[in-house]
Amino acid sequence: MRISVFGTGYLGATHAATLAHWGHEVVGIDVDPHRVRRLAAARPPFHEPGFAELLTGGVTSGRLTFSTELDAVGDADLHFLCVGTPQLDGSRAADLRAVWSAVDALLPRLGAGALVVGRSTVPVGTATLLQQRLDEALGAGRAEVAWNPEFLREAHAVEDSLRPDRLVVGAGSDDAADRICAVYAPLIDAGVPVVRTDPCTAELAKSSANVVLASRISVVNVLAEVCEAAGADIERLTEVLGLDPRIGPHYLSPGLGFGGGCLPKDLRAFASRAAELGVSTAAQLLDAVDEVNTHQRHRTVQLATDLLGGTVRDRHIGVLGAAFKADSDDIRDSPALAVASALAAAGACVTVHDPKAAHHLAHRRDLRVADGIDSACAGADLTMVLTDWPAFAAVDPAALSAVVQRRVVVDARLSLDVERWRAAGWDVRALGRPREVSLGGTEGSADDGVGLADPRAVDRDLRAG
Ligand SMILES: NC(=O)C1=CN([C@@H]2O[C@H](COP(=O)(O)OP(=O)(O)OC[C@H]3O[C@@H](n4cnc5c(N)ncnc54)[C@H](O)[C@@H]3O)[C@@H](O)[C@H]2O)C=CC1
Ligand SMILES: O=C(O)[C@H]1O[C@H](OP(=O)(O)OP(=O)(O)OC[C@H]2O[C@@H](n3ccc(=O)[nH]c3=O)[C@H](O)[C@@H]2O)[C@H](O)[C@@H](O)[C@@H]1O
């Protein structure tokens, strides 16, 4: 099948390479010439395990090409939309300009029977509006819009594309659904479950999944805070929860909360769209989920401040982690970076090390960047593990003792072997781990005036270089 893929970011590039792996002829179209040049030369523009091999396989086979030129779409009659749908500036809603611009660019190239398949995460109702645009421009029934959302996780993008746990095919006609299913024949033959539905349900199923995942993390983080206050053990507690088959053991890790290019903005876009539809309860619930999430970042900043005697000014902090999660170089709305930035803004000398994301920080004047764990922590009054990279959990605390000023570590991802660190003389602190219990006592405020920047402003600033 000849297929075009609009948008070659984490989603689109992985999707295009996966399609080529299955034998389709695929052209990836992007407005970013730098990205296109890299992909065309089989050089991944981001870190994603297994992606380099998949990309190289596609490019060398000749089945996978990339271009900024719309004419490269050629005679493809199935087009996937994988462009970004970030949060709109000054609003909680999704910014759909890239979706509209990709569809407008496609319009003159859509022949009779063309199928436009959305994969980006969009507010429910978007496919209907796109179908109207196509019908107005081309005449009713000439081209169809369907939705086939993607559920991959960064750091597992290739694995999730080659072995997804479900396929959702939202189409208004059997013909369109059949054509989408034909694209995924290798997965369907391998038994991957397919849910065939309408485009509206497909769009909503995707954002709903992210809403449920984000809510689950905030619930766990509330439980962790209660554990901390009550002197209970959050790790044993989540083990108990996970043994209930109705809850399950996955996605129950407490700590610094969720970040990344999707969960935070999808949560807000969902609440915004639900409000437009007259459903106010969505915002009531999801604003709380969002606030609990931001609270983890404030709590972590406060913990660091307390451990440094009430002020971070001129204190040296070694930060391990900048990416929003392990095995990724993505720093979009990264909780780790939000905390590091807030501490630097409050006057701390912050040195950050991240195995893959450090290149994004090269232009930052407020943060020093170190190329190793030891150099990040050299002379540190406080060490903070803010991203769950396995390399950080594997650090030898006895060896690290030799480089730091003080053996105090904040384990914001609950990823360290506490006993081992304590045996090496470290004071190990973590959100969710017990602090002094005061029955009926008042709790300290988490707000010490050290502010967190708007993550979108931080992202914009980072991109602007
Ligand atoms: N990153 C992820 O793990 C997943 C992302 N999604 C969704 O997929 C969509 C894309 O996300 P990412 O790949 O992370 O974003 P991204 O920001 O990494 O990539 C988006 C790409 O679209 C390109 N683009 C923008 N306007 C364009 C246009 N008019 N024509 C062609 N290309 C254009 C950009 O230059 C960029 O390369 C979003 O809706 C996201 O919510 C869904 C599942 C997983
Ligand atoms: O729409 C998307 O883009 C994707 O968003 C998430 O995937 P992703 O953001 O790549 O990563 P997750 O593994 O979900 O982690 C998100 C954030 O939550 C945090 N997290 C995750 C799990 C957990 O138990 N606790 C926790 O704090 C992570 O550290 C990270 O900051 C969803 O898991 C994917 O299904 C979805 O396709």
Describe the structure.
- The protein is an alpha/beta fold and 465 residues long.
- The protein has two domains: 2-197, 3-Layer(aba) Sandwich (Rossmann fold); 296-464, NAD(P)-binding Rossmann-like Domain (Rossmann fold, 3-Layer(aba) Sandwich).
- It has helices at 10-21, 33-40, 51-61, 97-106, 126-138, 157-162, 174-183, 185-189, 199-230, 234-242, 263-276, 281-307, 335-345, 373-377, 390-393, 397-401, 418-423, 455-464; strands at 2-6, 25-29, 64-67, 78-81, 114-118, 143-147, 167-170, 194-197, 316-320, 349-353, 367-369, 382-385, 408-411, 427-429.
- The protein has a six-stranded parallel beta sheet, sandwiched between helices. The protein has a six-stranded parallel beta sheet with strand order 11-10-9-12-13-14.
- α4 links the parallel β4 (78-81) and β5 (114-118).
- α1 packs across α3 (51-61), α11 runs antiparallel to α12 (281-307) and α12 packs across α13 (335-345).
- It is globular and about 70 Å long.
- The relative contact order is 0.09.
- The model is unreliable at 436-449 and 461-465 (pLDDT under 50).
- It binds 1,4-dihydronicotinamide adenine dinucleotide (NAI) and uridine-5'-diphosphate-glucuronic acid.
- 1,4-dihydronicotinamide adenine dinucleotide is lined by residues 6-12, 29-32, 35, 82-85, 98, 101-102, 120-121, 150, 152, 154, 261-262.
